[in-house]
Amino acid sequence: MEPAQVVVIGSGIIGRSWAMVFAGGGLRVKLYDVVQPQITSALEYISKEMKELEKSGMLKGTLSAEKQLSLISGCMDLKTAIEGAVFIQECIPEKLELKKEIFGQLDLIVNNDVILSSSTSTLLPTKLFTGLKHVKQCIVAHPVNPPYYVPLVELVPHPETEPSTMDKTHALMKKVGQSPIRLTKEIDGFALNRLQYAVISEAWRLVGEGVVSPADLDLVMSDGLGMRYAFIGPFETMHLNAEGMTNYCEKYRGGMIHVLKTFGPVPDFSGETEQKISQAMSEKTPADPEHLKARRAWRDECLMGLAKLKKQMKSN
């Protein structure tokens, strides 16, 4: 049997990573963009990345890098790109009008079976898909950047999304090695960013009030909370840190409520605190393209190593 075909719309950082994810799952991938040099650059990047991952033993899937690369091709014609596709993942810049335009174009040419999915991290499905005749086939599949190294995908439906669209997308994401979660309805920030922004907000306040330095604050996460959150979430942490969840709440609900009531207003993320945090981060990693690229490469290598360790631990 021929492998199923998916289309990735946009060949930037997220689009390239998605193409690698899908090829790793044994799917044929059409990488669509409107600029040929951008497609060429993306294919060269993917080829180099996959070969390096194979050398280090960190390539996803059971196929060789050469076989996975043979599954990916570029395309500049939208109609040609979607022929035979079962799933389309949009990855263009985070601008509502641009995304609505591409989904409007797709709405005119897709059949009633293909799923239309967006990688958006901030735009609600009702903003993106309302009014499309294929709205039942539309869904947000928000990855964590970069999706090849971090498997979580948030699936967020439009109010008119068919349950089968959610089910098929969930199954596809599992097939290609991602970790999909289902939101039952849309909400600003989805789940991941609401949790992330809550942490960032309190981190900002603690630094702004002079309680802790930016560097030490980051250590609280990387060498503290983050270590256990890499394997279990906040609810299981509570459950294991007492004789079950009920016991934890009996012991700590009063203290939690007391501390939470001392939280200040939402910061404006500017001014003196911004300068203080920016200076501390730049001392660690200068904010120029060369240093940032190197640090991101280090981050991705760490994430891949962690993913490999988690996979080994789950199989034991």
Automatic annotation (TrEMBL):
Instruction: Tell me the Pfam families matching this sequence.
Output: 3HCDH (PF00725), 3HCDH_N (PF02737)
User: Which residues are in the 3-hydroxyacyl-CoA dehydrogenase C-terminal domain?
Assistant: 189-261
Domain (3-hydroxyacyl-CoA dehydrogenase NAD binding) spans 5-186
Alphabetical keyword list: Cytoplasm, NAD, Oxidoreductase, Phosphoprotein
List, in alphabetical order, the GO biological process terms annotated in this UniProt record.
Answer: D-glucuronate catabolic process to D-xylulose 5-phosphate; fatty acid metabolic process
Q: Under which EC number(s) is this enzyme classified?
A: 1.1.1.45
- What's the name of the protein? L-gulonate 3-dehydrogenase
Query: MF terms per GO, please?
Result: L-gulonate 3-dehydrogenase activity; NAD+ binding; protein homodimerization activity
**Which family, according to the similarity comment?**
Belongs to the 3-hydroxyacyl-CoA dehydrogenase family.
- The primary site where this protein sits is cytoplasm
- Its domain of life reads Eukaryota
User: Is NAD there in the keyword field?
Assistant: yes
